[in-house]
Amino acid sequence: MAKKIQHPKIVILGAGSLFFGRQAIWQMVHSPYLNHGTLALVDTDAERMAKMGRLAEMVIADQKVPLKLEFSINRKNVLEEADFVVLSFAKQTVKYRGMDCQVSKKYGVRMCSGDTIGPGGVFRAMREFPVILEVIEDVRKFCPTAWVINYINPTAVHGIGLFRYAPDIKSFALCDGLHLPYVKQRYALDAGIISSTAEYTDELDRNFDLRIAGVNHFTFILKAEYKGQDVLPAIAATIRRAALQENSDSDAKAVFNAKITDTLYQIFGVLPACTAHTKEYLPYWQGKGVLKDIIPPLKIWETEPRYQAHAEMFKQVDDFISGRIPISNFMMTFGPDHATDIIESMVGNLGKPFYINTPNRGAVTNMHDDAFLELCSDISLEGIQPRPVGEMPRGIRGYQELVLDTHELTAEAIYKCDKNLLRRAILTDPIVNSIADGDAILEELLIQERDALPDGWF
């Protein structure tokens, strides 16, 4: 008989994360499987915590659901009896990602996101993974049977770290880019199977065989068939038409994504599913070529627009709290979140598949069983089983293995606080082109980010 949780307790560490906290409140209130449980919000920023706690109180009262609410600046106050612990925190991430990207650019490494691959991915993990390990110690003490869901980039590094160094804890890692069913709806539109998302039905979903796999942010559509017919060329044609309309006005993560997607399809025969990040994993747009490429080198991730976006989102929270926006509008403003969607399915035993980051376990047949990949998986309170994918194409598979080596070295270096392993991780990275440049980036970022890193590095 499947396990059941009647009154689930979900703890969100980093509730002030505006890309997750508001949606989590929405889902906890909306879901009949979750709104008889407890939502516990934690953020070490007291002002943010007070605002998010007050927002949750108002939404719960407005919707008249029996959801219990706890919130605190200290996770130890709320972890007791948790069923799920979601990790969604980051220390001044905009500030430090800006440092990572600018220092790397100085030494010839271009990052359009800077939070997963390249020196930016390594240093973000250096800032966050030690805190994750501290959280795990508290989970062992207060709620050792809870599921831990990592939502912090670089999610593959942290997922690998949890899998290898906290094997007693049930965990998986998560990204919102392949949130089902929405990702299948998007590609069904591109393939011409539907003309609007309203046409997407459960029967259509069963007939649409879409297989995506790879390391997080470096995933590819390996198969797309509708009723047995290959629709990958139709998806590629739609993207190629979009490429004709592109210009250089977009921000760093968005610029020329359709052109890059089409280019990679022509080379490898598969489509990148997360081009905004994938283009940062490959050497082609680092500006190192002798000849001029049609697609220019990557733009560098911008800090000021991200600061502005955060400010606008907190203004919206303030407007809900003050009444400038009626709290009754909250449930019409937001929608489901990937993590809480998965939790709902697990608690309700709904049997929905989701893309999560987890060991391969044979899903990709020509990669190791412990390769930590983003895979469509059946997940329940009993455990996780990735669905079959098939082979990873040669060329792409080689890059996958290189990225995994970089991520695994990063996790090991941080766990052991070993500077030699850290240097090896940076010099293994696919977009670091010079030993001297890699060493200079490492030393300069250690100096600039000393206040955010454990003392053991110095």
Shape: globular
Portion of residues in helices?
40-55%
Mean pLDDT: 95
- Beta percentage is 5-15%
- Give me the Rg, rounded: 22 Å
Low-pLDDT ranges: none
Secondary-structure element order, as H and E?
EHEHEEHHEHEHHEEEHHEHHHHEEEHHH
What's the N-to-C terminus distance? 52 Å
Number of helices: 16
Largest sheet: 7 strands, antiparallel
Class from helix and strand fractions: alpha/beta
Please report the total strand number as a whole number.
Answer: 13
Word description of this protein:
The protein is α/β, with parallel strands linked by helices and 458 residues long. It contains 16 helices and 13 strands. Strands 7, 8, 9, 10, 11, 12 and 13 form a seven-stranded antiparallel beta sheet that branches. A six-stranded parallel beta sheet has the order 3-2-1-4-5-6, with helices on both faces. Helix 3 packs antiparallel against helix 4, helix 3 packs antiparallel against helix 16 and helix 6 packs across helix 8. The mean pLDDT is 95.
Question: Any chance you could write out the topology, listing elements then pairs?
Answer:
Elements lengths: L8 E5 L7 H10 L7 E5 L3 H18 L4 E5 L11 E4 L5 H14 L11 H25 L4 E4 L4 H11 L4 E4 L8 H10 L10 H6 E8 L2 E9 L2 E2 L1 H12 L13 H12 L2 E2 L2 H4 L24 H20 L7 H4 L4 H11 L4 E7 L12 E9 L2 E4 L9 H21 L2 H10 L6 H14 L10
Parallel strand pairs: 1-2, 1-4, 2-3, 4-5, 5-6
Antiparallel strand pairs: 7-8, 7-12, 8-9, 8-10, 11-12, 12-13
Helix pairs in contact: 1-2, 2-11, 3-4, 3-16, 4-5, 4-14, 5-14, 6-8, 8-9, 14-15
